[in-house]
Structure prediction request, 616 residues.
Amino acid sequence: MSVSVPKGYIGRLLRVDLTSGSMKEEWLDEPDLRKYVGGTGFGIRYLYQEVPPGIDCFSPDNRLIIASGPLGGTRIPGSGTYSVSTRGVLTGGAAFSQANGFFGAFMRFAGFDGLIIQGAAEKPVYLYLHDGTAELQDAAHLKGLDTWETDEALKAELGGSKTTMSVACIGPAGENLVKFAAIVSDRGHIAGHNGIGAVMGSKKLKAIVAGRGKQAISLHDAKRVSELGRQIVDTMKNNPQSRFLYNYGTLGNYQVQERTGGLPIKNYTTNIYPDKDKLEQFTPDYIRGRFQPKPEPCWACQMHHCHESTITEGPYTGMVVEEPEYECLSAMGAQIGNMEVASAMMLTNVVDRLGLEMNETGWVIGLAIECYEKGLIDKEKAGGIEMNWGNVEAVRAMLQNIAYREGFGDILAEGAMRASFAIGGEAPNFAIYTKKGNTPRGYDHRGQWIEMFDKITSNTGTLESRPRVRVNMGEMSPEDVVDAATSGKGRMSFVDSLGVCFFATMASMRVLSEALSAATGWDFTVEEAEALGLRIVNLARVYNIRHGHTRELDAPSPRYGSTPVDGPFAGKTFMPSFDHMLDMYYQKMGWDEKTGKPLPETLKRLGLEYAIKDIY
Ligand code: SF4
Prediction:
């Protein structure tokens, strides 16, 4: 029976079995399509059905679901984004991560809305998508190459360039199953959370190449989609709240966070910046003014965000790097006690090339340094590396050891939580993580209570909510925090199902729902968009419960939940109210207060009746 394909879709999902080397195309019927839409929605749908409890993250039976969405490759800004879903290595639960750039758009132009990858190859392979076909090719010659070298080698081999080809690949970290290995696409766009690069490595899939191709994306109302794209750009440009982001991306955030107590400094041991004279180095003016910025916008994006930079001062002069995001600067700057921006840029480049996820890397290195400084590990244990605050060459050496799992790096390659247990003693009290095993974004959240509560309670152990109220003053009532954290639940999951960049679209539910309607011909309301987001959140919750997650895992590590000793939030914490907040949160989400299980009526309301039997 043939299945109809609505406008906005190519109508092809490619299932790749790496064990047998076979591939086949499949598609969803329209009710199911509208229920899950694409991207992360597709991801959780397939993950739930195909990766039941008992399947290890590194088992060939785990899936890697890579999908764009119905706005992918259109004139909506930043519609080169794709979403990756799998059973996550750090949490053992559902993992979702997105990367911007070109890959999502080029995959669609090559003829595929998404990929369901299963099995494991015997030897390294890469997948080449082009002109409606897919080929598995030998990747022995790419083994051990870093992510930039892999990108370059594949483009040279296949005759592609930046504008005609996009490469999503893993580096040595993914090949060596580092638990926070990432998938790196277009050199600087990284889908990194929860060890998805390690899952790709376990399948011996070194890279996926999407040749741009000529597949047309037929839209219901292309003119309206373009108009809405322009509207988004105008808003970004002219709205005082987004204008700075439009011009500088996340660069200005370092100073803002330093001022407001949100910058992580030396693994949360202080909130006082040690060298104020050097703070100026981390400003947009300094970075854009000195490091020869070359714009590198993603597909259909007009924001002045992504750039290539060249380091022009200090020992790393001449190095070409991606201009770092705020979270890169915080992870390789203040968090590890490094006050030199050029060194931070060098280190972020090393992290990207090795194929590590930046946030976890920062927390793991900060943990190692604190343990070293406090005598929990010595130079011999650290493999002869002097892990002191701000010793960037030591950090560089340790990053290599992590990616290749050598010496002490093998312990750190397990991620902050597991590494702290392995080090022992006081180390578990130093490590920053959420109890599911993931780590937060690169902030000191102890004064940003909405985001902290969201991180602790999210299915993925990292950002899940996009609160309508963006107030993080750390002095809200527990009720206000819970209200704010639940008010935006599901918004991110909706955006991540469309194939667009979260930044470039500012996640406007109204505009994006309208764009989805214009693309597909559906009448997709904001209410339906919110329901889609909540469907994803709830199905991920059920998935996690089936995989052993409990209420006890909705908690911070001792350090993450600690009280700041100095700075703007000294002495302030919401932790004494935390249990009560969790009760309120579960209640608001329609979950059982004791277990955190979504109630049968909640699942029914979201069209997830089929999941009830799995947890009751
Ligand atoms: S906002 Fe930045 S990351 Fe997003 S699409 Fe534009 S250039 Fe890419």
